[in-house]
Amino acid sequence: MKILISADMEGATGVTWPADVLPGASQWERCRHLFTSDVSAAAAGFFAGGADEVLVNEAHWSMRNLLVEELDERAQLLVGKHKSLSMVEGVQHGDVDGIAFVGYHTGAGTAGVLAHTYLANSLTGVWVDGARASEGLLNSLVVAEYGVPVVLVTGDDLTCEDAKGYAPRARSVAVKDYVSRYAAVCRTPARTASDIRAAAQEAVSLARRHEPVQAGPHTVEIEFDAEHLAGAATVVPGVEITGERRVAYTTTTMYEGIRAFKAVTTVVSAAVEEQYG
Fold first, then answer.
1. CA 71/CA 11 separation, integer angstroms
2. What is the DSSP letter of 58?
3. Can you point out the beta strands (E) in the chain?
4. Residues 5, 66 contacting (CB under 8 angstroms)
5. What is residue 24's predicted lDDT score, i.e. its pLDDT?
6. How far apart are CA 183 and CA 94, in angstroms?
7. In whole angstroms, what separates CA 32 from the centre of its chain?
8. What residues contact residue 227 under an 8 Å CB cut-off, 6+ apart?
9. Residue 135: which of 118, 122, 152 has the closest Cα?
10. CA 55 to CA 108: how far, in whole Å?
11. For residue 251, what are the contacts with CB-CB under 8 A and spacing of at least 6?
12. Which letter, b or e, does each residue of 95-118 get, where b requires 16 or more Cβ atoms within 10 Å of its Cβ?
């Protein structure tokens, strides 16, 4: 049995502030240890539950934040950028039985600690087929096309609530409770490691590949905080303006949909002016 862990950082233990997660920022180095502790606890739990292999896909920012020397020694780490499926890279090879979203967060335009969708700012909302989408929902639609269930989600309490919509059977662990975008009531790393390990051990029972879900076509709509960003996004083929600050595109699969989304966010991030957005 093989488990894939998609590891993001904003939903990690103790993280509440941009300086906690931006590479090179004041608190980032300290929070790397907390992030690694969450991921290592998940890996240990999966092995305790009977997994034979755990692959961790580093999915935050530079995708070079986890400390490999502090990971459970039985796990393997996929580190670095420019992966064809980005946050869920590795799911496409047909050998993954379940996936965990560790350190996840809520989506752009919603309540949650460090809530966003792909870009730290600029996006004020993302919808898939009319439903507001977090990174968790987007990625769950991708992995479903490969027959892989989401078995574990960790993050703040609102992230766990969000997960009930796209992975209702998954185990979840709230490592902190939302107070504001930049504040939370945080559990200690000793407690969260124990909770994550126990939940991952239970989650192994859910790790069973199913028939691939082909639910497309999918329509993705994106809203920005500035009008010119919508115009910039239309350089991506198939993306059309649907409102003053909105664009939309339709794809036959979510594999295509997530790759188009990555293209849009890459183009838009290059169009943001430092002071005026």
1. 18
2. E
3. 2-7, 53-58, 76-78, 98-102, 123-128, 131-132, 150-156, 171-180, 183-186, 218-224, 240-243, 246-251
4. no
5. 95
6. 40
7. 17
8. 244, 245
9. 118
10. 28
11. 216, 217, 218, 220, 238, 257, 260
12. ebbbbbbbbbbbbbbeebbbbbbb
Q: Could you tell me the pLDDT band of residue 185, with boundaries at 50, 70 and 90?
A: very high
> What residues form DSSP beta bridges with 154?
173
CA distance 77 to 84: 16
The pairing of beta strand 246-251 with beta strand 218-224: antiparallel
Do residues 206 and 169 lie in contact, with contact meaning Cβ atoms separated by under 8 Å? Answer: yes
Taking the CA atoms of the chain, what radius of gyration do you get in angstroms?
18
Please tell me the total number of residues recorded for the chain in this structure. 277
206 pLDDT band (50/70/90 cuts)?
A: very high
Write down the residue that tokens 């459970």 correspond to.
72
Q: How far is Cα 271 from Cα 121, in angstroms, rounded to an integer?
A: 13
Q: Which two tokens stand for residue 223?
A: 């809203």
Peptide bond into 217 cis (omega under 30): yes
Tell me the sheet residues that pair with 247.
222, 241
Cα–Cα distance, 165 to 33 (Å, whole number): 30
**Exposure string over 34-44, b if 16+ CB within 10 A, otherwise e:** bbbbbbbbbbb
Question: What tokens appear for 239 in the block?
Answer: 């993306």
Structure confidence by residue, pLDDT tens digits, 215-269: 999 999 999 999 999 999 999 999 999 999 999 999 999 999 999 999 999 999 9
> What type of residue is 265?
T
